[in-house]
Amino acid sequence: QVQLAESGGGLVQPGGSLTLSCVVSGDTIRRNTMVWFRQAPGKERELVARSRWYADIADYADSVKGRFTISRDNAKNTVYLQMNSLKPEDTGVYYCSAGDVWGQGTQVTVSS
Q1: Strand-strand pairing, 10-12 and 106-110
Q2: % of the chain surpassing 90 pLDDT
Q3: Residue 36 burial (10 A CB sphere; 0-12, 13-18, 19+)
Q4: pLDDT greater than 90 at residue 29
Q5: Burial class of residue 82 (count of CB atoms within 10 Å of its CB; 0-12, 13-18, 19+)
Q6: Which of 45-49, 54-58, 68-72 has the lowest mean pLDDT?
Q7: CA nearest 90: which of 78, 79, 106?
Q8: What pLDDT is stored for residue 18 in this prediction?
Q9: Which residues contact 28 (CB under 8 A, 6 or more apart)?
Q10: Which residues, in sequence order, are CB contacts of 94 under 8 Å at separation 6+?
Q11: What pLDDT does 28 receive?
């Protein structure tokens, strides 16, 4: 049974940084495209960043390009989302996914 567990969320001031982690159990991330999504209150869930398993290729939402970086540590079976220059509009619950399996999410709040 594949399980994903996100962590690293919290409250941060605008301009600050956070690093989210997603630990995968029950499967290897080596053969999974890993995706970070987020959902803000009252809004649809949106793709934030994607790391493809078959190539060193990452995709980002236009709203986070240049500020967020997705990376993976295959040895730790963990995917990260480094978030810099955070803005209030980055507030939401962040989820990681592998195929159709999702984690429980971690809350990120950007506020002064």
Answers
A1: parallel
A2: 86
A3: buried
A4: no
A5: middle
A6: 54-58
A7: 106
A8: 98
A9: 74, 77
A10: 6, 9, 20, 36, 37, 38, 48, 81, 105, 106, 107, 108
A11: 85
